[in-house]
Amino acid sequence: MIVVYGIKQYLNPIKAQLSNVIHGCMQDILWMPAGKRAHRFVPLEAEDFYFPDDRTSAYTVIEINMMQGRSKETQKALIKALFRQIEAEIGISSIDIEITLKEQPAHCWGFRGMTGDEARDLQYSVNV
């Protein structure tokens, strides 16, 4: 699951394009299936979103929650691809993007009536 925060006047117009860029990077780096998209956008009022003084109103926070298993190299490749593609395709400077990867053990995930460590039919590999 991915959660994206930003000032609503800036985030709302680019949500669909940003979702496409994020998912494209997830497919390229993590080999996620095309239909495996779980993005949540949280557009905030400017007065509810405090950020560093040297950032602009385009400041965007991306939190990526995923099961443990990806290598450090894969995680770094994902972060760098996101910076590169978001800047190239949407025009948000990397100074205005903050990315956090949050990993949890598979048993801490629940979906389709089971926990992640019980799932045997995932269409992607967690260990990449």
Segments where pLDDT lies below 50 for 5+ residues? none
CATH superfamily: Macrophage Migration Inhibitory Factor
Number of strands: 6
How do the helices and strands follow one another from N- to C-terminus?
EHHEEHEEE
The quaternary structure here is single chain
Helical element count?
3
Total domain count:
1
Distance between the termini: 18 Å
Strand order of the largest sheet: 2-1-3-4
C-alpha Rg (nearest Å): 15 Å
The assigned structural class equals alpha/beta
Could you say what the CATH topology is called?
Answer: Macrophage Migration Inhibitory Factor
| Portion in beta strands | 25-35%
Helix content: 25-40%
Mean pLDDT: 92
CATH class: Alpha Beta
Shape: globular
Describe the biggest sheet? 4 strands, mixed
CATH architecture: 2-Layer Sandwich
Structure description:
It comes from Salinicola endophyticus. Pfam families: Tautomerase_2 (PF14552). This protein has helices at 8-11, 15-30, 72-89, and strands at residues 2-7, 39-44, 60-67, 97-104, 110-111, 114-115. It has 128 residues and is α/β, with parallel strands linked by helices. The chain has one domain: 2-Layer Sandwich (Macrophage Migration Inhibitory Factor). The strands form two sheets. A four-stranded mixed β-sheet has the order 2-1-3-4. A two-stranded antiparallel ribbon has the order 5-6. Helix 2 (15-30) runs antiparallel to helix 3. The two termini are 18 Å apart.
